[in-house]
From TrEMBL:
Species, as recorded: Candidatus Saganbacteria bacterium CG08_land_8_20_14_0_20_45_16
Residues forming coiled coils: none
Gene3D superfamilies linked: 2.30.30.30
GO cellular component: ribonucleoprotein complex; ribosome
Name recorded for this polypeptide: Large ribosomal subunit protein uL24
Superkingdom of origin: Bacteria
Keywords: Ribonucleoprotein, Ribosomal protein, RNA-binding, rRNA-binding
Assembly behavior: Part of the 50S ribosomal subunit.
Gene encoding the protein: rplX
SMART domains hit by this protein: KOW
CDD domains listed in its UniProt record: KOW_RPL26
A GO BP entry: translation
InterPro entries: KOW, Rib_uL2_dom2, Ribosomal_uL24, Ribosomal_uL24_C, Ribosomal_uL24_CS, Ribosomal_uL24_KOW, Translation_prot_SH3-like_sf
Ranges where the KOW domain occurs: 13-40
């Protein structure tokens, strides 16, 4: 029997394009936009947060050198910033016009963008 992890698809409260704030760690209180979401590990990449320097060896196509690269952050260390009240807020899921939407618990405003 294989002990490989099977992917689990979770409902995350943070999506690509959301503005979030970091709650703990060396980048505490930094705000940024979510660039990428990893469902299997419950991590996201946030712009200008958790930046590290990587030393790259020169190749034929790349000169080499030191580049700055963002690393993923656990979702438990982030909180969504409500676009209306512009403060960190918890999110609840609510059915609105036969669709499941995210709602700010502070101001009861819909967080999802209407298409």
């Amino acid at each position: 029997m294989s002990k490989a992890k099977k992917p689990t698809f979770k409902k995350l409260k943070i999506k690509k394009g959301d503005t979030v704030i970091v709650l703990s760690g060396r980048d505490k209180n930094k705000k940024g936009k979510v660039l990428e979401v990893f469902l299997d590990s419950s991590e996201v990449i946030v712009e200008r947060v958790n930046i590290v320097k990587r030393h790259l060896r020169p190749t034929r196509s790349f000169q080499g050198g030191i580049i700055e690269k963002p690393l993923p952050v656990k979702i438990s260390k982030l909180m969504l910033v409500c676009p209306r009240c512009n403060t960190p807020a918890r999110v609840k899921r609510q059915i609105n016009e036969d669709k499941l939407v995210r709602v700010c618990k502070r101001c009861n405003e819909i967080v999802d963008k209407v298409k």
